[in-house]
Amino acid sequence: MRFAIDIGGTHIRVGAASAGFDWQHMHRSRWSDRIRPEEVLDLVAGLIDEWKTGRPRSIGVSIAAVVDGDGLLSGSENLGWAGVNLRHEIEQRFGCPAVIETDVNCGALYELRAGEAQGANSALYVAIGTGVGHAFILNGQLWVGARRGANALGHLVINPDGKPCYCGHLGCLCTVASGRAQSDGKAGAEALEALAQALGAAVTLIEPQRIILAGGALNQPWFDLQALIDLLPAYSFPAALQPHLIRTQAPDPNLCGALLLTQEKT
User: InterPro entries recorded for this chain (predicted)?
Assistant: First the structure.
């Protein structure tokens, strides 16, 4: 049985599937303080025992971090796991192949293969959770950037005189429109406009056919899809194609993408 794990800033999801997206087991939990890598591995080991699945055939991990080709993590401010080689840790612990990828890349891969990006030449996947991340699909492929760091839409500066961000800049998108901003009581009417500014910049730069939105923050009171659609033209180049702006239909696109990676790469 293949396992998939989605590790976000405040949540973990673990699923075991026999084939395709035929989930046989599922676990979801949250935390308020940072969790350590060994705690995640202990949790997975406990689930393997509880579910009586035996050793996994493979494990795919979606994680809120920049991941190099060997599974080494960087840019994991939400988790604080920079420098951890998660692929090696998992393979040593469980004795099976592991594939590690940035969470938004996993979500975009799922949308490309089985979701809202099917048939699109270009699409922007934007996940709004504890922070804000993105992935870009071009010609049926993920565009990951020169050093695999093209995933941080939340750190686009919206207001140079704005609130301090944990990245060290001022006025990043995620200081206004994110789960963290909402928990701090900062998200409100300005959040939707800030998101429209960021997406408008993306439309002007790359003109995607579709923008697919995902993440738990979309369920917060400040988010209004139709209002966002109405705002977007004011912040993008008038001659640019206005994209089809939609919410994902999948409850766990990042988790599904991690499972797809295990099927395609192991």
Answer: ATPase_NBD, ROK
Domain count, the chain: 2
**In a domain? residue 114:** no
Using one digit for the tens of pLDDT, what is the confidence trace for 135-149? Answer: 999 998 999 999 898
Residues 235, 260: one domain?
Answer: no
Average pLDDT for 196-215: 97
pLDDT at 9: 85
On whether residue 111 sits in a domain, the answer given is no
The pLDDT, as a whole number, for residue 237 is: 98
pLDDT band for 186, please (50, 70, 90 cuts).
Answer: low
Mapped onto helix, strand or coil, the DSSP state of residue 99 is: strand
What CATH number should be reported for the domain holding residue 81? 3.30.420.40
Residue 127 lies in a domain: yes
Q: In the predicted model, what is the mean pLDDT of the chain?
A: 94
Cα separations (Å) of 23 from 108, 152, 203, 266?
Answer: 20, 30, 36, 18
Global confidence as pTM: 0.95
Residues 213 and 247: beta-carbon distance below 8 Å: yes
**DSSP output for 166-201:** TTS-BSBGGGTSSHHHHHTT--SHHHHHHHHHHHHH
Indicate whether 200 and 186 sit together in one domain: yes
Number of H helices, E strands in the chain: 7, 12
With 0-12 / 13-18 / 19 or more C-beta atoms within 10 angstroms meaning exposed / middle / buried, residue 95 is exposed
> Is 199's pLDDT higher than 90?
yes
- Structural domain contains residue 222: yes
What is the distance of C-alpha 147 from the center of its chain? 17
Task: Report the relative pairing of strands 210-214 and 122-128 from DSSP bridges.
Answer: parallel
Domain that holds residue 83: 2-104+253-265
Residues 174 and 237 in one domain: yes
**Partners of 33 in beta bridges:** none
